[in-house]
Each structure stands twice: as C-alpha cells, then as structure tokens.
Predict the structure.
Amino acid sequence: MKLTGALSLTTAVAAWAATGLVATVLADGTASAVKVLTNNDFLSWTRDQNLALVEFYAPWCGYCQAMAPSYEMAAEALKKNSIPLAKVDCTVETSVCDDMGIEGFPTLKVVKDGSFAPYNGTRQEAGIVDYMRKHSKPALQKIKPVNFDNFIDSSHIVVAGFLDDDAKDLAALRAIAEESVDEYLFGYVSDKSVAKKFGVPYPGIAVFKDFDTRKDIFEFTRDADQIRRAVRSSSIPVLGELSAQTFGTYVRSGIPIGLLFYDSKGMRQKLHDEFLDLAIKYKQQLSLALVDARIYHKHAKSLDLQRKWPAFAIQEPTKNLKYLFPHFRVLTAEKIDKFVNDFVSGKMEPNFKSQPIPVKNDAGVFELVAKQFNNVVFDRSKDILIEFYAPWCIYCKRMAKAYTDLGDTFKENHNMVIAKMDGTANDIPSGDPGFQFPGFPTIVLVRAGDNAVIRYNGDRTLKSLIGFIKKHAVHSAIYEKPAAVENVDNVEKAAEAQQHVYIEAPKDALGYSPKETRHIEL
C-alpha cells in the first residue's frame, strides 16, 4: 500500500509549522525555547551566533519526535548560558537542508560564528547541555584553587591536571583536551595543597566522574597516547549498561567492547556479580558492558549471535570487527577470561559473515563476498566500483540492468573491476567510514593507487555511472564498446521514472532516519 494518508498528514503538519503555530508553542500553551529557522533567516541568524545548536528534522521522523522533549528542555536550560538552540523543518525549508547536505534525521550541527561542525553528543537533555557548555569554554582552563570543587562537579566527566605552568606539560594535556572537547571537560590547577587534598601526585592527572569509582588517579606524563588511553578507559563505567543512549560514548572511547547479553533481571545481576572483577582487570584494554537482549536483540543478530542467553561477543566498532564466544559453550568468568586474554594478546581471528567464494566469477559484474573483500577491494593496482545491495530491495532490482551493462562495458579493462556484494549476507571487514552506509543500494569506488573510498550519489543510469568512473577512476578506459553503450539514452529513458531513493538497512537502534525513506511505497 502507498503511504498516502501518512504523507498527507505530514504535509498538513508541515503547513502548520510554517505558520509558526506548531513550531513555537508547546502542548501546554507555553512558548518554545527553540528558535524556528526558515529559508529566509537561516544564514543571517547563524552568522550572528557565537555558539548555537541547530537541529535539522522531519515531522514524520520517529527519532526526531523522541528527541523533541529533551531538545526543548535543553534549550530552556541553556538560556542562562546564552546558548540558543534552533531547528529547521526539512520538509518545508528544503533549500536550506539541501545546501547543508542533510542526508538523514535528526542531524544536529554546532554553529560558531557562522561556521558549522557536527554535533557528537547524546540526544538527552543532560548530554546536550553538557556538550554545549563544554564548547563555550576554552579546551583547557586554569582553575583557581577556591573554584576547584565547583569545577569537578560541573560535568559528567572532568579531567583535571595538577601541574605547574610548564609549557611542555601544558602542551601535552592541551593536545588531548582539544581533540576531546566533545566528550570531557578539561582543566588544571597549580597548587600542591589541592593535589594533596584529593590524593593526587604532583604533577598528576585525575578523572572525576559521577559514576562507579568516582575518581581515577594517574601519574602525569607528556606522552599524549598514555594520557589519551588513561582518560578514555576511565570515562567508561566498569561493567556499565550499553544502550542506544550510551553506545556513542563506548564507540568514541576507541576501546573494544565486550558485550554480555542478558534477558532477565536475575541473569543481569548474576552476570554483574560474576564478571565485575574481570571488567576491572581488563579495563584499559576492553570495556565490558551489559546489554539487554530483550531490547537490543537486533544488535545481537547483527553480530551473528544466536538467540540463546547469556551470550558474549567482542566488538571493535572503529574497525568493524567482531569476535564471537561460541554459543554452545557455557559462559563462565574463567572461560571469558581466557577468551579476552587471547583477544588482547592478538591470538584471535575475527568472525565474518560471508557467502562462499563463488567457484566461477568471470561475468562482467564480479560477485564479491566478505571472505575475499580485503584482497580484492584494496588491490592498489586496480579501481573497483562496488554496489552494496539487498535481494529484497526493489530499487536494487530496478538498476540491475544498468549495472550489468556497466560490467559488460568495462569487462575488457582488467584494472577496472565492477563488483556487487549482498549486504545482508556478508559483513564488511573494514572500518573505513566510506563503507558505512544508510541503506540499499549504495555504490562506492575504491580508487587505484591510494585506495580512497568515493561515494556515488548520481542517477542510477548507465550513462551517469560511466561518467562517474571517467571522472574518479585511475583506469577508466573502455577497451571494447558493447552494444549496450550505444543505447545509453534508451537505458536512461527507461529509468526516468526511477527516484533516487533508498530502502533503509536494518539497524540496531542507532536512531537515524535516512532522508530518502519518506518516499518509500510499501
């Protein structure tokens, strides 16, 4: 069925929003603290802001609706800091959203003097407020002793240096502060009595937080990597709860995650009691976390875990790697200790979901599977264009003829590989962000020489695909021109009615609605 009724309702809501009635008045009749921006005032307003936050949303987006109360409360709380929050309805203010390159909802951007940067905080009120207040201050502040107690209570996680005004010492701490301003509040105090009061060596570093140990203490070093590891490991709760709200914090820490899945309150408590010592033991190498399988069973499925609880897996989100504890083995602290030790010692191979390597693979379009991904894709002597598709995706089926013709066009160019990969049957064994995509079909070019990953955003026609290869590939020559190329215009005409849309890929509650899903017909 077509989503005609839903779209009509969305259109009506958007029309009301354009009048300002929905956008500026809350359900209880009070005025909204969130500024509504339009095509007419977006640029002038953002240019005038020293610091602000803008949400790009769509009324039909469930994640936007879920975030709305928190965003409103954060706007109210940040009034006293003179940090305004604004929003743009991308179903109405289309030119602004197109100019800003908005690809999904909600998208939040931090505004500083007319410049825009991605927002990397959480979507809860406290997270938004904390994030924006951090950005209103210098990355590394010098704190007066009389203000130190207030300083360490001013944020969820506070990193404090206890050191003199030595340029090299400050440079080491400032480097970490500047790269971590999205996550932590940094400051330092040059008073030995304050260090003594909190039991910190001088010079030294302490991480103050409002959970588990409350304070972690480290000796000072000018080694930025050591400071970074200490701060990141300290910022993650010991055997905390992994959820949609906390997942980003775990990922940004850069530390692999050990996921303990449970499906009852009793099982959770048992796992917590049994694995707490193990979590402390491996704290700096692995963040052990508890995950409610009743809520996040899709995430377990994405890791290829069977629905048998408890279950355990190690995930490296930055590398897109996973290591599965065999489901048929009884899960005990002793066995997981050995499993984790093998992982941190580099003795373990990651698990990949993969189709078998095809016995015959000499057609114009190469059938790529996970088992051969790295060897084929990162061969620097060749360009490779890859379509990630799903067998059930109607838009993948519609472009199949054009993509097959593309493979035939470049078949005689052995340095230009046209490939496709079933994204539902194969993992992508690469952490390159270029291979993270919102849905199907997604097409990328991995260029010869430097292995740069370039996303294709053009029309799904033979002519457009050839033009993309000609523009970006190193080896773009067509050595034999098949009959299909002579009919490029016909292929285009046959695809004129085709919209540039995506079928959204299954997710594990990441909370992001691709822009194009509003066009889907079921």
The longest strand covers residues 383-389.
